[in-house]
C-alpha cells in the first residue's frame, strides 16, 4: 500500500507537469457581428464593430486563446496587442496583458447557427454590439446583437471567385502545364488514330484506282470488239444491196 501511494503521487505530479507544459490553443479568426454587419475592431482601448476595410483589416484580426484545457477563452487583438475584456460597468474594452484578469475570459457557446461569447464571471453578460457598431453595456440590446459569425480573416471573396473562374495569378501557367500534360497523354492515341486514318485512305484510294483500271479495260474491249464487228456488218449490207439489185434487174427483163 505505501508503494501504491507513492506511485499515485508521482503520477499526479507527472499529470500536473504535462498540463503545464501544454502550449496554449491559438487560432486566428475574425468575428462578424450580425447586428452591425461589421467585424470586431480593436484600435487602442476602443472596441467597435466596423465594416471590413483594407486599412483597418489588421485591427480586425483576432485570436482565441486558451491557457488550459478548460473552455475559457481569451480574445486577443494581434495588431493592438490587447485583450477584449469587460470593465466594471460591463462595457467591452481592450486591455494590455498586464491588466488581463477573469473579466477577459469568455465561454464560446452556440445560439442556433451563430456564436455567442458569455462572460466567465457572470453567465448573464454577453459580448455584443448595436446596429451602429458600438459595444453594448450589459444586456440592453436586441438578442441578435449578441450573435457572431467566425471566419478566416485571410479569406477574400474576390480571390475565391478569381480562383474558381481561373483568373487568379498563376492560373494561366497552371492551365498551360495541365494542357501540355494532357496533350502528351493524348499524343500516342492521336498518333494511332492518324495512322488508322491514313491506312483507311490508302486502301480506299487503291480500291478506287483498281475500279478505274477495270472500267478502262472493259471499255477498251468493247471498242475493240466493235471494230472487229464493223467489217462483217459492212459486207452483209453490200451483199444485201447486190441481191436487191440483181432482183431488180431480173424483174426488168419481164
UniProtKB/TrEMBL annotation:
One Pfam assignment: FGF
UniProt keyword list: Signal
Annotated signal sequence range: 1-19
Domain of life: Eukaryota
CDD domains per the UniProt record, alphabetical: beta-trefoil_FGF8-like
GO molecular function, one term: growth factor activity
Similarity section: Belongs to the heparin-binding growth factors family.
Protein name: Fibroblast growth factor 18
Species, as recorded: Microctonus aethiopoides
Amino acid at each position: 500500500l505505501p508503494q501504491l501511494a507513492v506511485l499515485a503521487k508521482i503520477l499526479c505530479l507527472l499529470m500536473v507537469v504535462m498540463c503545464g507544459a501544454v502550449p496554449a490553443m491559438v487560432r486566428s479568426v475574425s468575428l462578424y457581428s450580425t447586428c452591425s454587419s461589421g467585424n470586431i475592431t480593436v484600435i487602442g482601448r476602443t472596441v467597435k464593430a466596423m465594416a471590413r476595410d483594407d486599412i483597418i483589416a489588421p485591427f480586425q484580426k483576432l485570436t482565441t486563446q486558451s491557457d488550459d484545457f478548460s473552455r475559457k477563452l481569451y480574445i486577443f487583438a494581434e495588431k493592438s496587442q490587447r485583450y477584449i475584456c469587460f470593465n466594471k460597468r460591463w462595457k467591452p474594452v481592450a486591455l494590455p496583458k498586464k491588466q488581463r484578469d477573469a473579466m477577459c475570459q469568455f465561454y464560446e457557446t452556440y445560439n442556433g447557427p451563430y456564436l455567442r461569447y458569455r462572460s466567465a464571471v457572470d453567465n448573464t453578460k454577453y459580448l455584443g454590439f448595436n446596429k451602429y457598431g458600438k459595444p453594448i453595456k450589459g444586456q440592453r440590446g436586441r438578442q441578435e446583437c449578441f450573435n457572431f459569425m467566425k471566419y478566416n480573416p485571410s479569406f477574400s471573396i474576390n480571390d475565391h471567385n478569381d480562383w474558381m473562374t481561373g483568373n487568379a495569378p498563376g492560373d494561366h501557367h497552371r492551365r498551360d502545364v495541365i494542357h501540355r500534360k494532357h496533350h502528351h497523354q493524348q499524343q500516342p492515341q492521336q498518333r494511332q488514330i492518324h495512322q488508322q486514318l491514313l491506312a483507311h485512305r490508302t486502301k480506299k484510294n487503291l480500291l478506287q484506282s483498281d475500279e478505274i483500271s477495270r472500267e478502262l479495260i472493259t471499255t477498251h474491249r468493247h471498242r475493240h470488239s466493235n471494230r472487229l464487228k464493223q467489217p462483217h456488218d459492212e459486207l452483209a449490207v453490200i451483199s444485201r444491196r447486190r441481191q436487191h439489185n440483181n432482183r431488180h434487174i431480173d424483174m426488168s427483163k419481164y
